[in-house]
């Protein structure tokens, strides 16, 4: 059973990645023939007061979630708080704007001098990261509607092999790099466009996106929170920040008694087991040499990744509608007479010359060449740091959640028989 679910997991990853990197259509034109353009499905802009109300609600939810995770230590309270976030940020606010999608707004602010992000959107992006730095990933536990929707449908989660988890953990960084690249070049906001659950919140997704969302939810019955663990680009940022959190949810409120009741309680495989001390000095020396070697190779990984990313700029730029249209016209000039092609008619009605179109496409492609260096270099850095991390031995004497991978959901708390005063409940 696990074998087939693992295969299904990889198929979902490949299919979703294909959608994300697929070509985009040119924007629809305005016709003078009486054609009525359908109403946009993007939620209307909110008044400034209501936008700041969203910030206040997010602050309150994160504050309460952090208190529940660290002080109250109640899974039930965390669950009800996540239901509130699902109803408010998900179905009422229709998943917009969220910290995950705000990655693109922040990126475009730095890349395009004509674009300015609102203060509320910037705060929504930064606040969960700040909370993660102090209290762990409490945003994932109770404030994220995408996570809450998946969390409610977990039935019989299975544990995956370590090598699969480590391989899948690289995908969110690829998605993050792609989202930044496409936002910086003005191509698209792929996180928002390919959000598998926003169609459920707005009831307006295409059939393909409904199908992908349903597959994620179906897979989530057995592989807990598949989107969070395989794709979420904001989760990659939260993972980094949470590793440095000063306070974090702990399984036991007092001293661990090594009862092992919590060892398999986490559906996300985020609990680290006690380690045995390395007895051999040879082993320690070998790990140190590997650590230094991988550290010295990081610049090489960055350069190689940057070079590969830059050489891929032609392929990556095909997702840009203007580049795609230009290539289409160059390869098939007869399409200029195709009155049924919306993309071609949009270009012709704009009054822009073909030479100007080609020049603008070349400028965009050059942006992809520059961005490709950063795109590949970033992924090279991630690979180098992951390899270095494999050479680090961390001594653990207790069962404890991995600060980066733990969602602070509190599922593991009820498995610990130790009370806050250090006494132990009688186990039946």
Q: Categorize the overall geometry.
A: globular
C-alpha-based Rg, rounded? 24 Å
Number of helices: 20
Please indicate the count of domains: 2
Strand content: under 5%
Count of DSSP strands: 2
Strand order across the biggest sheet? 1-2
- In terms of per-residue confidence, which ranges show pLDDT below 50 for 5 or more consecutive residues? 21-29
CA-to-CA gap between the ends? 32 Å
The main pleated sheet reads as: 2 strands, antiparallel
Short overview:
This protein has 428 residues and is mainly α. It has 20 helices and two strands.
Q: In words, what does this structure look like?
A:
The chain has helices spanning 2-20, 48-72, 75-92, 99-111, 119-135, 138-143, 145-151, 162-168, 171-184, 190-193, 198-202, 207-220, 226-230, 233-242, 281-296, 298-311, 313-317, 321-331, 342-349, 354-389, and strands at 271-272, 400-401. It is an all-alpha fold. It has 2 domains: 1-20 and 48-248, no CATH class; 276-393, no CATH class. It has a two-stranded antiparallel sheet. The protein is globular, with a radius of gyration of 24 Å.
